[in-house]
Design goal:
The protein is about 25% helix and about 35% strand. With about 180 residues, the chain is α+β, with helices and mostly antiparallel strands. The strands form three sheets. The protein has a six-stranded mixed sheet with strand order 3-6-8-9-10-11, sandwiched between helices. Strands 2-1-5-4-7 form a five-stranded mixed sheet, sandwiched between helices. The relative contact order is 0.14. It comes from Azospirillum griseum.
Length: about 180
Amino acid sequence: MTNALRKPWISPDDYLSAERVAEVRHEYVDGEVFAMVGASRRHAQIVARFGHAIRQAALRRGCDAYLNDVKVRVEAANAYYYPDVVATCAPGDDDPYVVHAPALIVEVLSDSTEAVDRREKRANYQKIPSLREIVLVAQDDRRVEIYRRDGPHWVADIVTEGDVALTSLDLTLPLAALYED
């Protein structure tokens, strides 16, 4: 007979209530809660550059964009994530803490999060019906991976030079601008 430790299952409502007063951000995946690690200065610079450009493009299209502190709901995976940048163009997507219908999600990769961002998060994000693009941005190389919805499929566009084109917001940004300094 084994004495397996069981983690308590946390409901989405309990998670959301606790998250509103938490001192540390947490992501939620099907009843389990995971604390978020801090970001490097390099990570923060890339998020700020990309986020500013995305927010301006989103506002021009009647959309909005948020950096770091707004959750995305993935209903099909019973999950809440904090992407680095998220844009939504859906009328009525007005929950003050959660984006339910994102058009674009950006994750800046780090050593501690890359595996989860590439596998779990990307796979779960692809289940969001409104989502048109997922962008994974390397910190240490000039490399941006854009995953675009093409009908029922997702196609990858890997940018290592030139411009980063985000069709969901009709935005073109020089790769060099993301990696200044």
